[in-house]
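Fold this sequence, please.
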Amino acid sequence: MKIFNSLHQINKNFKKNSITVGNFDGIHKGHQKIIKKCIKVSKKNKLNSAIVTFKPHPRYFFNKNCKSFKLTSIKTKITVMERLGADYLIFLNFNKFLSQLSPEEFIEKILVNKLNVKHLVIGYNFHFGYKRKGNIKLLKKLSQKYDYNLNIVEPVKSKNGIICNSSTIRKNLESGQYDKVKEMLGRAWQIVGKVIRGSGRGKIIGYPTANIKLKDYIIPCKGVYLTESYINGSKKNKKYYGIANIGNRPTFGGNKILLENHFFNIKKFFYGKEICINLIQFLRKEKKFVNTNKLKKQIEIDIKTAKKILKKNK
């Protein structure tokens, strides 16, 4: 998959494409269905498949102080989309120019003139252009004028009949309904970040941790999770299991949210290294302990529980 980080990197002779457009935050099952359809259409019509997304997310552009809500990092987005098999991933810089394009201008100037769209594949609730005024009705109308075919993909629903969408996933993450999150994503939720130095308390009590700031990620339900991690620069596809506490460490009077991951099979941490942490299962909510001995005993229980789950799922 070839990645373009701006329209300026695309030459004038860009080949005809089957294109899908969206924020794709989470790349959940609904997004995956759209992308797979885009790829299928491209192969059937001997075209290239191109995923068009935005950087930053439009919500951050319009409100830089908004509450953190991100589900996927750029790294995770690239990894999942590449796995799906698209030919191109195109990041559009969401800036003042792009935000003020009318729906028809977006179609004409970006998708037709620049990206040579011949098939457009979009979700059932797609909106675009200035103030999100563009919709499916307009896309159908413009398809005749600009000579492209339109494919509309219906939503994916969970076992309970709930539509898979990013907003629902965020709500489930915050409320601790992690099994529902995994069902809608079709995989474990992943957090990517660089290991930073913490207070060293974990090492003192016998359970050293690799610490990561969540930055603009949505804050999930505070608590302990079973984790599977990949460390940038280590052996390819080498998995490291452990448990992570996501929270503000109430036993020690902490106030900043941090992810603290204790590995079962690593004793030495590489500060500054990028690490990808998959949350495999939610174990329990964060709680305040009366002393460190009580905390240590609970960590021992958490580790035993986590290892039982890993053994069961081998």
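The radius of gyration is 22 Å. The first strand starts at residue 2 and ends at 4.
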